[in-house]
Write a structure and sequence with these properties.
The complex is a heterodimer of chains A (200) and B (472). Chain A has 200 residues and is α/β, with parallel strands linked by helices. Chain A contains 9 helices and 7 strands, in the order βααβαβαβαβββαααα. Chain A has a single domain, classed as Aconitase, domain 4 (Alpha-Beta Barrel). Chain A is 36% helix and 16% strand. Chain A has a 7-stranded mixed beta sheet with strand order 4-3-2-1-5-6-7. The longest helix of chain B has 17 residues. The model of chain B has no long low-confidence stretch (mean pLDDT 97). The chains are: A alpha/beta (200), B alpha/beta (472).
Amino acid sequence: MTIAGRAVVLRGEDIDTDRIMPARFLRAVSFDGLEAHVFEDDRRAGAAAGVRHPFDDPARAGASVLLVNRNFGCGSSREHAPQALARWGVKAIVGESFAEIFFSNATALGVPCVSVAPEAAAALMALAERDPAATVTVDLETMAVRGGPLEAVCAMPEAARNAFLAGTWDATALLTAGFDEVRAAAARLPYIAGFPPAPI
Amino acid sequence: MGSTLLGKVWDLHTVRRLPTGQAQLLVGLHLVHEVTSPQAFDMLRLRGQGVAFPDRTFATVDHIVPTDGQPRPFADDLAEQMMAALERNCREFGIPLFGLGSGDQGIVHVIGPELGLTQPGMTIACGDSHTSTHGAFGAVAFGIGTSQVRDVLASQCLAMDPLKVRRITVGGALGPGVYAKDVILAIIRALGVQGGVGFAYEYAGPVVERMTMDERMTLCNMSIEGGARAGYVNPDDTTLAYLKGRRFAPEGGAFDRAAAWWRSIASDPDAAYDDEVRVDGDGLRPMVTWGTNPGQSAGVDERVPGPADSADGERAAVAGALAYMGLEAGAPIAGTKVDVAFIGSCTNGRLSDLQEAARVVRGRKIAAHVRGLVVPGSTRVRDAAEREGLHEVFREAGFEWRQAGCSMCLAMNPDRLEGRELCASSSNRNFKGRQGSPTGRTLLMSPAMVAAAAVAGEVIDVRCMLPQREGS
């Protein structure tokens, strides 16, 4: 599986999911339209200060690879955050590291998050900022991220990589197959069985 | 070599190994609320699937409920739609709902334990990152996103990578005015907001063993703020005493058999850990955050650090946090003027939290410029507090006494900061904009410290305001 596209750069450590999607936009019963509000508070604050947010930069429209720094997506488990990014057009995220729940949520949506060394993240960001037209490629077969003359090794937990390569990132089908086994496992748990007396 | 609680519970709940290499983990208890579930139920309908174990699934409403009166329909049409969707989904799929007016409604992480649904040895999942709270009972509990909520509804299972275990041993004893909140803030400060990624935190040692269940819940609740998806405390006499007589706890002989099993799943004395950390409880003091993540905190008697005090990779983040907060490097954190005081949340909205805060405000008034809000974590907490007269103590001091919900922890309901207001808050996240105003500011601290700040109108060391305990 390979994802290639132009990149949008979002600098900063510990970007939390409240940043990505402020809680007031979670007041909805669907994920529709969330992309319009991705990073809304930062975009507004930037506009007020005369600084254009990367997600407002026309040169980044249509970008599909998001470049980030350390511990991206920390905090709230709201899937609204990766949903909004995916609906905006993000198909892969390359960063120094990711918070765990965000990583799981993005994986479930088919958006791979791959980790690269801080130097590689810095070089890729510099390249993409210098040349908005540059193509960044995330290759899950070879576990490499390429951009212009750069090629960096990337990492991802093996199970997630297997899921992407096999096309099984939506886990429901896997988990509902063989449901008898689930029932049997549940019946073995004493708290589900009601803590029955030990058989004599 | 023995096993950890996490290892034992993991093995007991592993249905099989998936082709991806992950474990298919059975979820013993699935808790559902109105924010992260409607899309999951819609996906089930779209795929023609049902709920696999409706009897292991329980719902409540907490994030969007107004706390100043709850007539239906809600004034906020979007909130009403979410509430109605949850009611419809629970009805259609046969899931018990602890709704408004039931007497059982409250923050999902407060009501699970108080109803006795949360028990040792369970795996527990909920579409909320603070599900780690339930680890206080020796459960393995973690937050999940909406797609995973769908998976659990459809299969009662999750596809999970194994977690490593870091034991955090808190030695010594906490001084007066130092609480579980201060312990966890100190831990996150030491290990960082990303330090727990890939780990479950096992909290141990004399300080944790002496903690009440309420305090253990505060500790485990903020594991996620340290990057750890789960945190837990091994079950002991305190755990068993809490559970006895709760509505969903086993009764009679079944309780005794349960108790024996619960004890058996505690970590073995010779268990191997992936990492060990020691914290000196004697040296801890009341903590206050000064920045925009929960790792950016200081003792109340310390000064706000600056970029120059920080590691190379942190300087820009520290400078950015101080600029947002409007705090000056090198200034004492005590004396910082506060506009709002919020007591509540799944971190610190339980009865003992309200009791400690009430000890501070009893017979005092909150400063004229401070807006004070007490939001009990559940209807049951509210009722118990009222039986003790705590609502009168808070009201006489000038606080608003509200109904149960998440409220200003994340401001999905009408309880919000305005503009750049600065809030002394007993909640869990000081992220930019977290409390509802895009420029609002949050200082995290214990409920007693929030109460003290409300009275003083500024951050103050609660230890100089606590009455002497009887007999001490």
